[in-house]
From TrEMBL:
GO terms for biological process: fatty acid beta-oxidation using acyl-CoA dehydrogenase. It comes from Aspergillus hiratsukae. Belongs to the acyl-CoA dehydrogenase family. InterPro entries: Acyl-CoA_dehydrogenase, Acyl-CoA_DH_CS, Acyl-CoA_Oxase/DH_mid-dom, Acyl-CoA_Oxase/DH_mid-dom_sf, AcylCo_DH-like_C, AcylCo_DH/oxidase_C, AcylCoA_DH/ox_N, AcylCoA_DH/ox_N_sf. The keyword Repeat does not apply. One of its GO terms (cellular component) is cytoplasm. GO terms for molecular function: acyl-CoA dehydrogenase activity; flavin adenine dinucleotide binding; heme binding; metal ion binding. This is Cytochrome b5 heme-binding domain-containing protein. Keywords: FAD, Flavoprotein, Heme, Iron, Metal-binding, Oxidoreductase. Its cofactor is FAD. Residues 2-78 form the Cytochrome b5 heme-binding domain.
């Protein structure tokens, strides 16, 4: 790679027998790549011997050249040095507004300590090195997360951190010891969630143990049989077993009262017999345990159901990748020991409701971070793309769009950090009592904003914004999938309504 060439030398290699070109001051020999190029050989023949930097970056993302450099690059241009940055694993983006304010060197924040910063750095590197490459591959081919990655996350205790703060973290070495398990709070939790979504693969993001995140917390808090709880927790956090939450049915989604799956006690009182179906169950395809909402004689109860006789799963294809392992689940006369009951019999609503807070908080962390990435992509594109002889950024209409996108991201992230801080200072029960409304409102609001951001971003990227490869692939993915966050864990309307209803419960009688 230390070889240098003059531009005149490169220009001579302008035939299909010897085809060179220049990208960012580096010389590439594309002769043997002609037939393999996904964009075909004709485009390459048209630019043979030339500096194609602008054309290349109009069509490809930086990671394309990073991937092929070692194979195709033969040297640099004499007296010139490459200018375009290839992000190192773990690095922060230098693009304005690409990172949350607390990560920008010139700003301060009252919320974050050194351990938050250490965790952020370690999580960013972990995601860049291990999660993103697999996420991109699985998102494309629709297969499920590998056991290798699960093992890696289990070993570094990333799986354990994703449950949020709690005793399950005490005594564990978190990502090599960057934070003490006893100090781990909801701001750490937010960091883990926000860093993981930077792998930019919405289906895989859910396929990556999202089912565990929203179900094991309920087991932790509500399964009263301690040996069983410890056994299951250990199995899941070590990555040997997978767990999912099975509440939603084709008959009832956010309206939990309308569920039709039944759990009937056997005459000896030792078991429940479960019958019914569940739909849109994230990770259901590979789950070993289903935390399942059932109708019982006098109400609603939640059971931990292991995969076994009478449990069947079928894949559902949704708008995002099948990497999420979304399933239709059928329970047919499934015998479940009564010790597998979460909370009290007939009082399962509280189990579900209190669990919803963390689930929705996680979703909000993710969607807001994703909006920020989309805004970053648009900032970069507007700065690069030349239309009618001008950069896009020089068009006032584009600056208006960016201003709106930035404002939505900044305000949502600030609201989120404030809620995370409240969570750090409340017990689980206080959170359930006081934060259901605010988290619901923030989720509803942030996904409405996501819709607007997806819309602006697609218009900015044009045809690229509706294409699954090339420069607009992140935009295309976001525009196709932002609705998941608007629906999973409670629709926008239901959550907005919850926010106002919870506020009205506390409305003082004496105020007119
Ligand atoms: C080192 C040189 C190059 C490499 C490694 C490369 C690689 C690729 C890859 C992997 C794709 C698939 C789409 C994607 O994943 O982004 C692609 C598509 C394409 N490439 Fe290249 N390419 C190179 C140079 C060029 C040049 C110089 C041109 C034209 C000036 C070009 C034109 C195209 C076109 C038109 C497409 C299809 C557009 C699309 O899928 O969005 N490529 N290239």
């Amino acid at each position: 790679m230390s070889k240098t060439f003059t531009r005149a030398e490169v220009a001579k290699h302008n035939t299909e027998d010897s085809l060179w070109c220049i990208i960012d001051h580096r010389v590439y020999d594309l002769t043997d790549f002609l037939d393999a190029h996904p964009g075909g050989s004709v485009v390459l023949a048209q630019v043979a011997g030339q500096d194609v930097t602008t054309d290349f970056y109009n069509l490809h993302r930086q990671e394309v050249i990073d991937k092929y450099r070692s194979q195709l690059c033969i040297g640099t241009i004499e007296g010139e040095t490459p200018e375009i940055l290839s992000p190192e694993p773990g690095s922060l983006s230098p693009v304005p507004y690409a990172e949350p304010l607390w990560l920008r060197p010139e700003f301060k924040s009252p919320y974050f300590s050194e351990s938050h910063r250490r965790l952020q750095r370690a999580m960013r590197e972990f995601t860049d090195r291990y999660v993103t490459p697999e996420a991109q591959e699985k998102e494309r081919d629709g297969t499920y997360i590998s056991q290798e990655l699960i093992d890696k996350m289990a070993e570094a205790n990333v799986l354990a951190m994703r449950l949020g703060p709690g005793k399950h973290l005490h005594g564990r070495t978190l990502l090599g010891g960057v934070v003490d398990g006893k100090e781990f709070d909801y701001l750490h939790d937010m960091i883990v969630a926000q860093e993981m979504v930077r792998s930019n693969a919405r289906g895989f993001q859910d396929g990556n143990m999202a089912g565990m995140v929203i179900s094991l917390t309920a087991v932790q808090h509500w399964l009263r049989n301690a040996p069983l709880r410890d056994q299951v927790t250990e199995e899941v956090l070590s990555g040997r077993k997978k767990m999912c939450l099975a509440i939603t049915e084709a008959f009832a989604g956010s309206d939990v009262a309308g569920l039709k799956t039944t759990a009937t006690k056997t005459p000896d009182g030792k078991h429940y017999i479960v019958n019914g179906t569940k739909k849109w169950i994230t990770n259901g395809m590979f789950a070993d345990y289903f935390v399942t909402g059932c109708r019982t004689e006098k109400g609603f109860s939640v059971l931990l159901i292991p995969r076994g006789e009478g449990v069947e799963t079928k894949q559902i294809k949704t708008s995002y990748s099948t990497a999420a392992a979304t399933a239709f689940v059928q329970f047919e006369n499934v015998k479940v020991p009564v010790e597998n009951l979460l909370g009290e019999e007939h009082k399962g609503f509280i189990v579900i409701m209190s669990n919803f807070n963390h689930e929705r908080f996680m979703m909000v962390c993710a969607v807001i971070r994703m909006c920020m990435t989309v805004t970053e992509e648009c900032m970069k594109w507007c700065n690069q793309r030349i239309v009618f002889g001008k950069k896009l950024i020089e068009q006032p209409v584009m600056r208006q769009k960016l201003a709106r996108m930035i404002s939505l991201c900044e305000s949502n992230q600030a609201w989120l950090e404030s809620i995370a801080y409240q969570m750090c200072n409340m017990t689980y029960a206080q959170q359930a009592a006081h934060l259901g409304g605010p988290i619901g409102l923030l989720k509803s609001h942030s996904t409405r904003c996501a819709q607007e951001i997806a819309d602006h971003a697609t218009n900015i990227f044009g045809g690229r914004g509706i294409t699954q490869t090339g420069m607009g692939k992140v935009i295309e993915m976001f525009h196709r999938t932002y609705k998941f966050d608007a629906i999973l864990g409670g629709t926008e309307e239901i959550l907005a309504d919850l926010g106002v209803r919870q506020a009205m419960k506390k409305f003082p009688k004496a105020v007119l």
